[in-house]
């Protein structure tokens, strides 16, 4: 069953339709094609049965670890290190502590956006024995139902060929689950501080530790890092202090302060004469296809059983003629969190000033949902905030500094949520770090460069490959660069599945391949397609030429 429906017969589907077929649903695909397991693949991907190395063999583990950012990446890193036996792990986050995962507040659809955990994320979480504390709070999305202007209402699709069913959970709730897991199992090794922002870093071997050094700096020696911290509560600054750690992990998201600090440190002419390869740089790709979004809860419960396709475990996706798309995913509590995506200059959305305007808009563009949008949500939609989607960026060629600073998660790769790979790939990265620590016997001075050399190229491949699809398909460039390749992939994979892989969006979800392998695989496909089409077109051209000549001869003779 194809995940993407773009093929020769319905190529008029536009960019948004195609991308959102895979929106959030980062699940395994059933296709198989001959693949060689390279050394790189073994480093990067993990069988479902593999597990974190629970305890390190090294008796000289780093004395202390600081992690900046208690998002899913930072907390999962803390869990991985604690399972290895690390002590004195401290995680800092500037935001307040999220509610307990079983709190009724998660029934509030405005509390946090939803994300889909596919094979990559689930394998990582299972390997760390964390899945059992997350799964009870997830809602399954086992298929999808779509409406498009070209094809109207489509029958529901249930994915029957997937090893891993997509599990949907709020971003803040997965952080809360990981927090609970840490407190239950590793409370003596890990402490998590909320409302604490890291506002500065000093590398202790580069600067005079100064009078603010705490007694622990003696233990850390010359190799450590000093963090300057601010504690705030409801916007009020309560205290400031400094602390030291043997090494620090920056998991502070897309606008990472740690990454900015490393960029300055490793800039040409900066400190320590970093080589080009050792530079930490953020590469931002141009924004070619910008969308913004608003949240719209959908209470589909009254619809269940009223017609085919209304059920609690689907991804609902509807697109209007005016380039507005609703993507709705379930929550454990039953209400769907809809994301309404539109162009920043959308006049249809700009016209919505109040509840009645919103009602009129949804009645005209999305009548199928009108009776499941609550009155209060119509009003909130009109006045509620508009959010930007993250842009494509990655960090490289290096993602570490000296022997004590490492970047992870959205800090090193930021992608659009359409592809459902932001967190899924970050969780995979944490597993890759675990493996590097094992191979380096927990000597971070060896593990950090090893991890950087393996992961930075993957981050680059992930971002660049996804960005290569990010075109507005309503333009000629978008058609040639995005829609046409999808059509070709659909045809070639259908008729020669042993030689040609499915389209790139679907390939990316295959957890058995690294992102670099996926990109290379698609490049090979393109060359193969070009050769076959070239031969075919040359043959047709020659055939036509011959036919014209024969016809001319006959006519002349006549
Ligand atoms: C609408 C939407 C839908 C998405 N859907 C999916 C999906 O389906 N699948 C998927 O895999 N991904 C999805 N993503 C992406 C996913 O949310 C991110 O990849 C993921 O949250 C990254 O986790 P992180 O911990 O690296 O960063 P973040 O989640 O950004 O966490 C960083 C943390 O660091 C803290 N912080 C920042 N600076 C500091 C500082 N100086 N001091 C202390 N703390 C600090 C922040 O408060 C934050 O808690 C989606 C994203 C969006 C916006």
From TrEMBL:
<keyword id="KW-0521">NADP</keyword>
<feature type="domain" description="FAD-binding">
    <location>
        <begin position="402"/>
        <end position="465"/>
    </location>
</feature>
<keyword id="KW-0285">Flavoprotein</keyword>
<keyword id="KW-0274">FAD</keyword>
<keyword id="KW-0812">Transmembrane</keyword>
<dbReference type="GO" id="GO:0071949">
    <property type="term" value="F:FAD binding"/>
</dbReference>
<dbReference type="Pfam" id="PF01494">
    <property type="entry name" value="FAD_binding_3"/>
</dbReference>
<keyword id="KW-0503">Monooxygenase</keyword>
<dbReference type="InterPro" id="IPR002938">
    <property type="entry name" value="FAD-bd"/>
</dbReference>
<protein>
    <submittedName>
        <fullName>Kynurenine 3-monooxygenase</fullName>
    </submittedName>
</protein>
<dbReference type="GO" id="GO:0004502">
    <property type="term" value="F:kynurenine 3-monooxygenase activity"/>
</dbReference>
<keyword id="KW-1133">Transmembrane helix</keyword>
<dbReference type="InterPro" id="IPR036188">
    <property type="entry name" value="FAD/NAD-bd_sf"/>
</dbReference>
<dbReference type="GO" id="GO:0070189">
    <property type="term" value="P:kynurenine metabolic process"/>
</dbReference>
<keyword id="KW-0560">Oxidoreductase</keyword>
<keyword id="KW-0472">Membrane</keyword>
<feature type="transmembrane region" description="Helical">
    <location>
        <begin position="527"/>
        <end position="548"/>
    </location>
</feature>
């Amino acid at each position: 069953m194809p995940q993407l429906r773009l093929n020769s017969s319905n190529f008029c589907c536009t960019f948004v339709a195609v991308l959102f077929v895979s929106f959030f649903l980062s699940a395994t695909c059933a296709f198989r094609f001959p693949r060689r397991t390279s050394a790189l693949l073994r480093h990067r991907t993990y069988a479902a049965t593999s597990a974190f190395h629970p305890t390190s063999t090294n008796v000289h583990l780093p004395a202390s670890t600081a992690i900046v950012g208690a998002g899913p990446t930072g907390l999962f890193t803390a869990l991985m290190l604690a399972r290895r036996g690390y002590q004195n792990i401290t995680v800092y986050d500037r935001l307040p502590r999220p509610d307990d995962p079983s709190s009724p507040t998660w029934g509030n659809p405005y509390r946090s956006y939803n994300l889909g955990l596919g094979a990559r994320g689930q394998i990582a979480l299972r390997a760390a024995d964390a899945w059992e504390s997350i799964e009870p709070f997830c809602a399954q999305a086992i298929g999808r139902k779509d409406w498009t202007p070209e094809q109207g209402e489509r029958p529901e699709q249930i994915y029957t060929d997937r090893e891993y069913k997509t599990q949907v959970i709020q971003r803040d709730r997965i952080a809360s689950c990981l927090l609970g897991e840490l407190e239950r199992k590793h409370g003596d090794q890990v402490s998590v501080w909320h409302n604490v922002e890291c506002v500065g870093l000093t590398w202790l071997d580069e600067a005079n530790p100064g009078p603010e050094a705490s007694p622990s700096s003696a233990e850390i020696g010359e190799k450590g890092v000093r963090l300057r911290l601010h504690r705030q509560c409801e916007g009020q600054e309560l205290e400031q202090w400094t602390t030291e750690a043997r090494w620090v992990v920056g998991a502070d998201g897309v606008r990472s302060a740690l990454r900015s600090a490393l960029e300055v440190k490793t800039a040409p002419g900066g400190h320590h004469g970093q080589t080009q390869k050792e530079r930490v740089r953020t590469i931002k790709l141009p924004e070619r296809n910008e969308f913004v979004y608003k949240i719209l809860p959908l209470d589909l419960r009254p619809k269940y059983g009223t017609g085919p396709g209304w059920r609690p475990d689907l991804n609902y996706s509807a697109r209007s003629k005016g380039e507005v798309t609703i993507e709705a995913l379930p929550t454990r509590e039953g209400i769907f969190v809809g994301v309404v995506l539109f162009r920043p200059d959308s006049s249809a959305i700009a016209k919505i000033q109040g509840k009645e305007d919103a009602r009129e808009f949804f009645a005209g563009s999305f009548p199928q949902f009108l009776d499941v949008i609550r009155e209060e949500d119509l009003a909130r939609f009109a006045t509620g905030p508009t959010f930007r989607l993250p842009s494509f960026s990655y960090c490289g060629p290096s993602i570490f500094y000296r022997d004590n600073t490492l970047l992870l998660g959205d800090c090193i790769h930021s992608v659009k949520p359409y592809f459902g790979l932001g967190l899924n790939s970050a969780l995979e990265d944490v597993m890759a770090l675990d493996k590097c620590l094992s191979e380096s016997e927990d000597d971070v001075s060896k593990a950090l460069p090893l991890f950087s050399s393996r992961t930075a190229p993957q981050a680059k491949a992930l971002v660049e490959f996804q960005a290569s699809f990010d075109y507005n398909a309503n333009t000629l460039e978008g058609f040639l660069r995005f829609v046409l390749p999808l059509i070709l992939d659909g045809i070639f994979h259908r008729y020669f599945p042993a030689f040609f892989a499915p389209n790139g969006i679907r390939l990316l979800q295959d957890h058995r391949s690294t992102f670099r392998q996926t990109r290379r695989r698609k490049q090979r496909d393109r060359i193969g397609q070009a050769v076959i089409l070239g031969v075919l077109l040359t043959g047709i051209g020659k055939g036509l030429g011959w036919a014209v000549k024969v016809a001319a001869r006959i006519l002349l003779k006549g």
